[in-house]
Amino acid sequence: MNILERIKRSVANQGDSVFLRAEFERFGGPAQVGRALRQLTSEGTLVRLGLGVYAKAKPSVLTGQPIPARPLEVLAPEALKKLGIAVTPSRLTREYNAGRSTQVPSGIVLNTGKRRVARKLSFNAQAVQYERA
Prior knowledge:
- Helix 1 packs across helix 2 (30-43).
- The chain has four helices and eight strands; from the N terminus they run H-E-H-E-E-E-H-E-H-E-E-E.
- It is globular.
- A hairpin with a 2-residue loop joins strand 7 and strand 8 (126-131).
- The model has no long low-confidence stretch (mean pLDDT 93).
- It folds into two domains: 1-69, Arc Repressor Mutant, subunit A; 71-133, no CATH class.
- It is α+β, with helices and mostly antiparallel strands.
- It has helices spanning 3-13, 30-43, 72-82, 91-98; strands at 18-20, 46-50, 53-59, 66-68, 88-89, 108-111, 122-123, 126-131.
């Protein structure tokens, strides 16, 4: 069984929706893993959310192009958790949920506490923004 098939089987068997490149290092060298991930991305099995961050994909109902199987609002906190970054809802989201505001927050904003995060997570034109408390 080659590396591509092993990674494909690993992705199918895991319950997670987000994967880091580091999770596949046990299957082979960095160049081999990179080629396999590019192949899976071009096949539509995975989509790339950021540098070394991938998510399970499904075909779009409208275009047929691969899109993440779950929304980016769900995938981003999961990816940051795997990277060791604790996130909470943004200030505007907390105020809306508590009923102190009627303005619906737009975009994806996550509170990272006092930690500075430079990693970019996005898909198509939708990007995750970070808020520091």
